[in-house]
From TrEMBL:
Source lineage: Bacteria, Pseudomonadati, Verrucomicrobiota, Verrucomicrobiia, Verrucomicrobiales
Localization per Swiss-Prot or TrEMBL: Cell membrane
Family: Belongs to the CorA metal ion transporter (MIT) (TC 1.A.35) family.
Function: Mediates influx of magnesium ions. Alternates between open and closed states. Activated by low cytoplasmic Mg(2+) levels. Inactive when cytoplasmic Mg(2+) levels are high.
GO annotation, cellular component aspect: plasma membrane
Protein name: Magnesium transporter CorA family protein
């Protein structure tokens, strides 16, 4: 799909598709390509006299493949975390191309930021290529900030679930361990941690793009004064990167805490078996003594010998329990 934005006397207009395209080149300031067809790519290439990067080229991780100048145009590709609200979030590549007075964006995944900015753009009386480029970057940064805020809220909920539930359980002396809840929290922490790692990588790529776009000497294109306009966006991205690092450290702390609590739960189970083995050890010894196959055993031929042996076994089991209770082992 291709969306062409033009400046007219009545304001900004948008045309979807290639039908009835008779606009002059000077009127067009933004061409948005969403999963474009061959005809749409050819139209943009003919209009701007450049060769568009392919989907595979947009996925290249080398800096020289993502940030470069060619045919008088400045090519910049970044990644963003997309579809966060779904069960299958993904990293999406977005390419920005600055050529003369036209901005070309290429993407293969629908973006919430682009939808929001396009609605805002259509209500503006006028604009130009650089303002659209800066506005798109600001909208992308705002969206990434919202995503990080959501991750922070999810971590707060997990923190209450991990530490609050375990503290209450200890206070009430419940014998039912909550190991399953801790395991569920461990899985959720792994999911959020993976998303934050992807988000940090996307922010790094976005910061590189902003730095490259603001560098007036990075291309033979005429100076456009983007450096000063992009400085606030760069500061916002840096602050988001620091916040993402904070969330990453918080996840590492919570992971260690969950693993420690799971070990405590398992140690409590092992402690129960240890106490039971110690409690039943003296009765087992007494039963073994009276069960020996000898001709003479004390109290063997008395009528109350069996009751005495049972009493000794019971007492030998009660005494360790009392000692453990006084020592607060149980």
């Amino acid at each position: 799909m291709i969306r062409i934005y033009t400046q007219t006397e009545n304001g900004i207009s948008r045309t979807v598709g290639l039908e009835e395209q008779d606009y002059r080149k000077g009127d067009i300031f933004w061409i948005d390509l969403l999963t474009p067809s061959a005809a749409e790519l050819h139209y943009a290439e003919e209009l701007c006299s450049i060769e568009m990067p392919t989907k595979d080229e947009m996925r290249e991780i080398e800096a020289t493949s993502r940030l470069y100048c060619e045919d008088g145009g400045r090519f910049m590709t970044t990644t963003v975390l997309s579809r966060v609200e779904t069960d299958e979030p993904m990293i999406a590549e977005i390419s920005f191309i600055l050529k003369q007075r036209v901005l070309i964006t290429i993407r293969h995944t629908d973006s919430y930021s682009f939808r929001v900015f396009s609605h805002q753009l259509l209500r503006m009386p006028g604009t130009n290529r650089d303002l659209v480029f800066i506005g798109l970057l600001e909208t992308l940064v705002d969206r990434q900030a919202d995503v990080l805020e959501r991750f922070g809220a999810d971590l707060d909920v997990l923190s209450k679930k991990i530490f609050g539930t375990h503290r209450v359980r200890r206070k009430e002396k419940s014998e039912d361990p909550d190991t399953e809840d801790l395991r569920d929290a461990l899985v959720e922490l792994g999911r959020v941690g993976d998303l934050i790692t992807r988000q940090r990588d996307a922010l790094v790529n976005l910061l590189r793009l902003i730095t490259y776009a603001g560098n007036e000497e990075s291309c033979t294109e005429a100076h456009t004064g983007l450096y000063a306009a992009l400085r606030p966006v760069s500061r916002d991205v840096n602050s988001l990167s620091e916040y993402a690092s904070f969330l990453s450290n918080k996840i590492n702390f919570m992971l260690d805490a969950v693993l420690g609590l799971i070990n405590i739960e398992q140690n409590d189970i092992v402690k129960v078996f240890t106490i039971m083995s110690v409690v039943f050890l003296p009765p087992t010894l007494i039963a073994s003594v009276f069960g020996m196959n000898f001709d003479y055993i004390p109290f063997l031929h008395t009528g109350w010998g069996v009751w005495l042996s049972l009493g000794l076994m019971l007492a030998s089991a009660i005494v360790p329990l009392i000692v453990f209770k006084l020592k607060r082992f149980i």
